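Hi support team,

I've been running sequence recovery on a batch of backbones for a student project. Most finish fine, but this one hangs at about 90% for roughly twenty minutes before it completes. I'm not sure whether the input is malformed or the queue is just slow. I've pasted the structure tokens below so you can try to reproduce it. Let me know if you need the job ID as well.

Thanks,
M.K.
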């Protein structure tokens, strides 16, 4: 018997007349295949995963197990429809706190249609994607038996300001999680959930080290699902802190190029989580938009990371140089985010001269979005 997942925090939801994922009791998660290339993309990605020698075993564990596709009764009542059959990541968790973090400052693949790009660009601008390199697509934080979960609506979660996103990363591991965002989070579970050799930070760092090398895939609009169980943490037990990569409808071939969008967003997330571990009590709640932006520009992690790559001279630099001259747009995009008032124009002129598809992207970003400074 298939039912609606109890702990879904983002994405399309099953309901009356609504197509969304379903779960069974044996621990399988059925995600309906989108009829267009998104469904085909995701199947192709999962099908290639286990046999792809470029993905080491210790990285394979970050993906849900894939059990193929199956025709099942769709949740919207439209009859039998092919679904991806995946491991149900919430199986065995009683009251999990879950956060869906969509990684990347840009969430559309290069092949996307103009209409789809506009839709994504709007969401990227209106969320923290453009400024932080990631956004919270949805979340639930377990509070207590009496209070249940704090689960802001999907749209509300996505519209959180950059400061609020940082605050939510703290609330996620706090014991004083009331409904309002004004209370100062105590970060009581930061060290057990984010920290330690098996904690979230350590897992994110492992993923990062792979993304520093891998050039097989570019994962647009992919999410990191972050999970743990507060009740276990309270009992002094292992809280089951875990990250998993999900949503591969917009995977694109890497063609020998580093996935800078994903890597940049991942570094940014790592930076904020590291900060929580090093300074769990330093929580600035009120910061003016301008100060916030300054802070991001100077200290956003995406930038810092690129700086450190540059300084470390480890091949990424050469890569970035190639990317710049080969009109890839990634580096320029980073520049755009970093120094919107310098250098970018020259670069964009070069790019425009080369007249490829990426220029159009940059134009969109430039013409209509030069308020990011
Ligand atoms: O339609 P919406 O507004 O729910 O958008 C979906 C997004 O939900 P959101 O509201 O941004 O959380 C949804 O985002 P999340 O997975 O929820 O982060 C996807 O971006 C989805 O696109 P696709 O199926 O991956 O191509 C988006 O679906 P499409 O409408 O583009 O198919
Ligand atoms: N394998 C899984 N097991 C459990 N929950 C999942 C799994 N995959 C996704 N989810 C839940 O469903 C949500 C949406 O998943 P996603 O693949 O992004 O769908 P969509 O393409 O509709 O956006 C996630 O935020 C998560 O809560």
């Amino acid at each position: 018997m298939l039912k609606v997942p109890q702990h879904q925090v983002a994405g399309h939801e099953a309901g009356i007349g609504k197509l969304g994922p379903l779960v069974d009791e044996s621990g399988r998660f059925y995600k309906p295949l989108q009829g267009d290339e998104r469904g085909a993309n995701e199947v192709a990605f999962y099908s290639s995963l286990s046999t792809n020698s470029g993905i080491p075993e210790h990285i394979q564990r970050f993906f849900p197990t894939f059990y193929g596709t199956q025709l099942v009764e769709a949740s919207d009542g439209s009859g039998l429809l092919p679904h991806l059959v995946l491991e149900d990541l919430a199986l065995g968790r009683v009251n999990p706190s879950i956060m869906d973090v969509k990684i990347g400052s840009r969430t559309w693949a290069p092949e996307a249609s103009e209409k789809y790009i506009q839709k994504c660009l709007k969401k990227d601008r209106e969320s923290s994607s453009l400024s932080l390199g990631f956004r919270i697509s949805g979340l639930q934080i377990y509070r207590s038996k009496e209070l249940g979960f704090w689960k802001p609506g999907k749209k509300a979660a996505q519209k959180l300001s950059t400061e609020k996103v940082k605050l939510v990363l703290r609330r996620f591991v706090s014991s004083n999680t009331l409904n309002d965002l004004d209370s100062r989070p105590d970060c009581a579970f930061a060290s057990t959930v984010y920290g330690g050799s098996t904690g979230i930070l350590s897992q994110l760092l492992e993923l990062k080290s792979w993304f520093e090398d891998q050039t097989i895939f570019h994962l647009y609009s992919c999410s990191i699902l972050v999970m743990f169980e507060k009740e276990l943490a309270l009992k002094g037990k292992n809280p089951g802190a875990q990250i998993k990569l999900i949503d591969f409808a917009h995977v694109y071939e890497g063609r020998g190029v580093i996935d800078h969008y994903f890597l940049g967003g991942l570094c940014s997330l790592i930076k904020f989580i590291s900060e929580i571990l090093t300074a769990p009590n330093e929580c600035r709640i009120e910061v003016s938009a301008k100060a916030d932006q300054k802070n991001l520009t100077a200290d956003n992690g995406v930038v810092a990371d690129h700086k450190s790559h540059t300084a470390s001279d480890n091949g990424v630099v050469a890569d970035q140089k190639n990317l710049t001259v080969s009109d890839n747009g990634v580096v320029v995009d980073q520049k755009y985010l970093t120094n919107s008032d310098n250098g970018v124009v020259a670069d964009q002129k070069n790019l425009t001269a080369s007249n490829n598809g990426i220029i159009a992207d940059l134009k969109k970003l430039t013409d209509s979005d030069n308020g990011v400074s």
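--
Follow-up from support: It reproduced on our side and the slowdown came from queue contention, not your input. The pocket of adenosine-5'-diphosphate (ligand 2) is lined by residues 5, 8-12, 21, 29, 31, 64, 86-90, 100, 138, 223, 225, 246-247, 249 (CB under 6 Å). No action needed from you.
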